[in-house]
Design a protein that fits this description.
The complex is a heterodimer.
Chain A (H helix, E strand, L loop, with lengths): L1 H39 L10 H16 L4 H13 L3 H14 L5 H10 L4 H12 L6 H13 L3 H14 L4 H13 L3 H14 L4 H13 L3 H13 L8 H7 L5 H13 L3 H14 L4 H13 L3 H14 L4 H13 L3 H14 L4 H13 L3 H14 L4 H13 L3 H14 L4 H13 L3 H14 L4 H13 L8 H14 L4 H13 L3 H13 L6 H14 L9
Chain B lengths: L7 H16 L16 E3 L21 H4 L3 E4 L8 E4 L12 E5 L5 E3 L1 H4 L7 E7 L8 E9 L1 E5 L5 E3 L1 H4 L4 E10 L8 E6 L9 E2 L5 E2 L12 E5 L5 E3 L1 H4 L8 E7 L8 E6 L5 E5 L5 E3 L20 E4 L8 E4 L8 E5 L5 E3 L1 H4 L10 E7 L8 E6 L24 E7 L2 E4 L5 H5 L4 E7 L8 E6 L5 E5 L6 E9 L4 E2 L4 E6 L2 E6 L3 E2 L3 E3 L3 E6 L3 E2 L1 E5 L5 E4 L2 E2 L2 E6 L4 E2 L8
Parallel strand pairs in B: 2-36, 31-42
Antiparallel strand pairs in B: 1-30, 2-3, 3-4, 4-5, 6-7, 7-8, 7-10, 8-9, 10-11, 11-14, 12-13, 14-15, 16-17, 17-18, 18-19, 20-21, 21-22, 22-23, 24-25, 25-26, 26-27, 28-29, 29-30, 31-32, 31-37, 33-34, 33-39, 35-36, 38-41, 39-40, 40-43
Chain lengths: 555, 569
């Protein structure tokens, strides 16, 4: 009994001791893990940053603390840091994400991009880790190739560019990278061929034209080199957006980053989203005239003229002599019909900075509307003297001349505009229309086909081209099938537009589908004021379709 | 019963042995190589160069405050040694005069600003020199955030502000400038780079939302000035007529030279954040920007970069001049290598100059043959214009947040370079907000020394103490008709069966200028076997062989007509 009791007591004490030991061990483990986590969490000084940036980083840190074994939490922290240019800290966090989720190429890829801001050679290892996962993102391979090229490893860079092209043969920048390598190998012929492929894939890429100018100058083709130089100067998108990088950048909340995002959105034509972004910027900071200018421009582009004018005026309160704001306000007042007010502001801009070409062009447009065509022509010519590549100055000058009956001069100006920059779409359209009017349909079609290369989605070019292919008087110029394909796409995009219906009807008739043509023309007429010129023209064509005849433009 | 006890004595011995092992002296290793002597020794204060730049630094993030200032290293009093003019900035609105230091016979500098009449204040940026009136001494042009000034050297140790009479005191944010004779009429014209149409009311923030100095993208660029020297002491601003007004860059660095080898002088401008310009002289009084066609507008990736300073020299010894442009951090500096095809090609990767420059913001730069071995090495002085992520807001340590070490790269042959900071710890280790670099043989010992300006910091004079330097030759190309340096010439020297070329120019790097003599390292060769000068109009003249280790003047018309030197084998 005594032996049993003491055994029991011993067992109890032992159990207690074990429990205590386990508790201590557990506490130590948790404590150790906690301290380990704190050590792993990157530290950044956000004391001088905007409060929402500090809060966003803190939120991402809290996400990691809540679930330190979740790759997504680390990845989010890494991306938030990266988006705010805390590159070194971002690399550390990406590596944590990568350790927890070794199958996702994005984390070592983004780590490579962040690292490349600090140390090019050190970024290679991250790229290689990501490359082992065979990413199907051409931008990844292009960026890796670019890094290798910077590190003077052209052979391995070329492999990366080729890999990008196997994923997407239209990766313009991969052709560009290969062209650089060819040029460094003193093979300008191959470089030129590759650049032509790059230009075909992405006609707006300034960098392609920059290198093309060099290649052409080397080859002694001075005029073509000059043309490439002008295209390079005119700028344009440099490379296709990388979805992985875009997702990271979208996490940025600093006013600078949001303003940049707004500018990108505006450039891409998404003025609604741009407006949202610029309003967000104004919630964060005040007193920046450029922010009001940006918001005003986004509003004006949406036709919110009154609100735009208010924003420009707000901006001018901070910077009364800001030429950009004055110019924008002037242009917007003109749109609102206040031609006197607009002219006054635009004259002020020119007074402040005589090199402001846009102000002269805008003032020219105002003068035209005020009936002063000669004044307008003078202003456009002055603008071109300052900047012989200014697209709007050419277009407007040509139009002003045409409107005053000086067709030959207008023709010359639009042709000159295209020689300077074949992407001057407005001048090309005007010149095409002039050619149509002159009955020079072959030239019109050639102009439009070339324009389609530079602006494949321009409905104006496509509509005029489809019209010519359906209705040109010369049989060998018509192409009913192509005309119908184009007309159908255009009609489906805007079925209520009577001009599109008229076009579709003409294309159907050219393909011998008279009944459908008549039905389409009738539908177009149904919603149209009979007094309009277009209504009369459609009615005339409808009678042809009813007789089983297509419409042909007169010789 | 005897129990087996651990043998305490044995344990003690073992412990002692372990302790002994720990305390044993390290095994013998080969002696460390002797520490290399520092190649660049800072002697500014010791030499009496007592100047501290003041930008009027406050917490307003007034953009000119971060751009620093430059100066000129030139012999203003024709006593045969290099004097130093240093530009100062001062407070917004009032500004500060620069400082002129005269080098005395004992090698000490003494300030002579007042005596020289250079007390005119203004928010100074840079300086350049040139003998615009062909009277045999160097005149001084000072660029400012505000009105620029031309000071005529009176030849008696003083300068006269002739800006108004000369019609040259335009108001802008001017930066670097270069005297050159673009119309070959014998009188030096002047190209002045302008930076931005700056609006101090606009404030900026960085990517993390910290208030920071604005970048160039916040403002429109400003078209540059081109002044035509009318030959009677007056200049006419002809940028519009000449076509250089047609595109407004954001110019920070300028060099002039005959880039298309057609016998007249062209202009290269390093622009900040937008494409660089190469104004090719059409020979008709007009210029055309051909930077894209010549491959020097953007880097090899087609991207415009933050161009600051420019070095012009033959980095790879192929007798074509190369252009090296310094840039912002997160961009590499770029070497545009001249090619036999007459255009340039981005040679940054091949040169090895790219990766090491990525973390730093480079400003002043220059090629120099540091150890006189015959090839050109490279110096870059650095200092940020935006703080690194995570560096706190302005405080006492504001400047420290922008300070960076300098860089020195040694030419290791065929246009490739390697970091050589281990041999220049004083120079590379000095973390300052460095801006301008001026190179010249200050102590007349046959190698090039360096003067470095620092934003809100002291000027530094680095004496070149490279060990075992080779032989050398300094050549002055003189146009006797104009009684001045033949700015725009190229001097070729043949030694050891190798031709070397150096451009004759005053303007260098960023915001600065130096004497127009050219320095050649000749390595083991104790003589130069031939000298050929390509004069600014493209004519070549050959001069006889000469012994090394001397300063030589070659005068136009005293040699024999020659053809251009052939390429090195």
């Amino acid at each position: 009994m005594t032996t049993g009791a003491s055994k029991l007591r011993f067992a109890l004490i032992a159990a207690l001791a074990l429990a205590l030991l386990a508790g201590v061990a557990g506490w130590l483990l948790v404590e150790h893990q906690g301290r380990g986590l704190e050590r792993r969490l990157p530290t950044v000084d956000t004391s001088a940053s905007e409060p929402q940036v500090a809060a966003r980083i803190e939120q991402a840190v809290a996400g990691v603390r809540a679930d330190p074994d979740r790759a997504r939490a680390w990845a989010e922290l890494a991306q938030v840091l990266h988006a705010h240019a805390f590159h070194a800290a971002a690399v550390d966090a990406y590596l944590e994400a990568r350790a927890l989720d070794p199958g996702d190429y994005r984390w070592p890829y983004l780590a490579a991009l962040a690292q490349a801001k600090l140390d090019l050679a050190a970024a290679v290892a991250h790229f290689e880790t990501a490359a082992a996962l065979e990413p199907a993102n051409p931008a990844f391979h292009v960026n890796f190739g670019d890094l290798l090229l910077q590190l003077n490893q052209p052979a391995t860079a070329a492999e990366r560019y080729r890999r990008a092209l196997t994923i997407d043969p239209a990766t313009g920048h991969a052709h560009y990278g290969l062209a650089r390598i060819a040029l460094a190998d003193d093979d300008p012929g191959s470089a030129r061929a590759l650049l032509e492929r790059a230009a075909a894939a992405a006609p707006d890429h300034a960098e392609v034209q920059a290198l093309m100018a060099q290649v052409l100058a080397r080859g002694g083709d001075a005029e073509a080199a000059r043309r490439a130089e002008r295209l390079a100067r005119a700028g344009g998108a440099t490379r296709a957006e990388d979805p992985v990088v875009a997702a990271m950048e979208a996490l940025a909340v600093s006013s600078t980053a949001i303003a940049r995002r707004g500018a990108r959105l505006a450039k891409a034509g998404d003025y609604v989203a741009a407006e949202r972004a610029f309003r967000q910027v104004l919630e964060i900071r005040s007193g920046h005239p450029r922010d009001h200018a940006n918001l005003g421009a986004a509003l004006a582009r949406q036709g919110k003229i009154k609100a735009a004018i208010t924003e420009f005026r707000r901006g001018l309160q901070f910077a009364p002599d800001d030429a950009d704001l004055l110019n924008n306000l002037g242009q917007t007042l003109a749109e609102a019909g206040d031609l006197g007010g607009a002219a006054e502001l635009l004259e002020r801009v020119i007074e402040l900075d005589e090199t402001r070409v846009e102000a002269r062009v805008n003032l020219g447009a105002v003068r035209e509307r005020q009936g002063d065509t000669e004044g307008a022509v003078g202003l456009y010519r002055a603008a071109l003297a300052l900047d012989p590549t200014h697209a709007d100055a050419y277009t407007n000058l040509g139009s002003a001349l045409a409107r005053s009956g000086r067709i030959t001069e207008a023709d010359e100006i639009w042709s000159a505009a295209l020689a300077v920059d074949p992407r001057n779409h407005a001048s090309r359209y005007n010149l095409s229309m002039a050619r149509v009017g002159q009955g020079r349909h072959r030239e019109a079609i050639a102009l439009l086909e070339e324009g389609r290369r530079y602006a494949p989605r321009s409905s104006r070019f496509l509509a005029l081209l489809a019209w010519e292919l359906a209705t040109a008087p010369e049989e060998n110029l018509r192409d009913g099938r192509e005309a119908l394909a184009l007309a159908r796409v255009l009609f489906e995009a805007a079925p209520q537009n009577p001009e599109r219906a008229d076009l579709l009807a003409a294309a159907l008739a050219e393909n011998g589908r008279f009944e459908e043509a008549a039905g389409t023309a009738e539908a177009a007429l149904a919603g149209l004021d009979p007094a309009l010129e277009l209504a009369a023209a459609i009615k005339q064509r409808l009678s042809l379709y009813r007789q089983g005849l297509p419409y042909r433009q007169p010789h | 019963m005897v129990r087996n006890q651990p043998n305490r004595a044995a344990l003690a011995v073992l412990a002692g042995a372990l302790l002994c092992a720990c305390e044993q002296p390290p095994p013998e290793v080969a002696p460390a190589p002797p520490v290399a002597a520092d190649w660049l020794i800072e002697i500014g204060a010791e030499a009496g160069l007592d100047f501290r730049h003041d930008s009027g630094l406050d917490s307003s993030f007034f953009m000119p405050q971060i751009m620093g200032s430059g100066g000129a290293l030139f012999d203003y009093d024709l006593d045969g040694d290099l004097d130093v003019f240093l530009v100062d900035s001062g407070r917004r609105g009032s500004g500060a005069p620069g400082a002129l230091f005269r080098r005395e016979a004992d090698g000490q500098y003494g300030e002579v600003t007042a005596r020289a009449g250079l007390t005119d204040p203004g928010y100074g940026m840079g300086a350049t020199v040139g003998d615009y009136d062909n009277d045999g001494d160097l005149d001084l042009f000072v660029t400012r955030y505000g009105r620029n000034s031309l000071y005529r050297n009176a030849g008696d140790g003083s300068f006269e502000d002739v800006s108004e009479a000369a019609g040259i005191g335009d108001d802008a944010w001017s930066t670097s400038a270069s005297f050159f004779d673009y119309d070959l009429d014998g009188f030096l014209d002047l190209y002045v780079a302008n930076y931005l149409t700056y609006d101090p009311a606009r404030s900026c923030a960085d990517q993390s939302g910290r208030t920071e100095y604005c970048g160039p993208q916040a403002f429109p660029g400003a078209a540059d000035f081109l002044y035509h020297n009318l030959g009677d002491g007056r200049f006419a601003e002809v940028a519009r007529e000449a076509g250089t007004h047609s595109t407004a860059g954001k110019g920070l660095g300028v060099v002039t030279g005959d880039f298309d080898d057609d016998g007249d002088q062209d202009v290269y401008v390093a622009n900040d954040g937008v494409a660089n310009q190469l104004w090719i002289n059409l020979g008709t009084g007009r210029f055309e920007d051909r930077a894209y066609a010549f491959g020097v507008a953007v880097n090899g990736f087609g991207q415009p970069e933050a161009g600051m300073g420019i070095a012009l020299g033959d980095a790879d010894g192929d007798l074509s001049l190369d252009l090296f442009v310094t840039h912002l951090d997160r961009e590499t500096n770029t070497l545009y290598g001249g090619t036999a095809a007459g255009v340039f090609q981005d040679a940054t990767a091949v040169s090895g100059l790219g990766p090491d420059s990525l973390p730093w913001t480079g400003f002043g730069t220059g090629f120099l043959d540091l150890e006189n071995d015959g090839d050109l090495d490279l110096i870059v002085v650095n200092g940020r214009v935006r703080r690194a992520a995570g560096v706190p807001t302005p405080s006492d340590a504001l400047l420290a947040a922008y300070a960076e070490p300098n860089a020195l790269a040694l030419n290791i042959g065929s246009g490739r370079f390697a970091d050589h900071c281990a041999a220049a710890r004083a120079f590379c280790g000095a973390r300052e907000v460095s801006r301008a670099l001026m190179l010249g043989d200050v102590d007349a010992d046959g190698d090039l020394d360096a003067v470095v300006t620092n934003s809100n910091g002291p000027v530094r004079l680095y004496r070149n103490d490279a060990p075992d330097p080779g032989h050398w030759l300094v050549v002055r190309a003189l146009d006797a008709r104009q009684r001045r340096d033949a700015v725009g010439s190229r001097v070729y020297v043949l030694a050891d069966e190798t031709w070397r070329v150096r451009p004759v120019t005053h303007a260098m790097g960023y915001l600065s200028a130096t004497e127009a003599t050219v320095h050649f390292g000749l390595g083991r060769s104790a003589r130069a076997d031939a000298i050929v000068v390509r004069w600014p109009d493209g004519a070549h003249e050959r001069f006889p062989a000469t012994a090394a280790d001397r300063r030589l003047t070659v005068t136009r018309g005293e040699g024999v007509p020659a053809s251009p030197p052939g390429r090195n084998q």
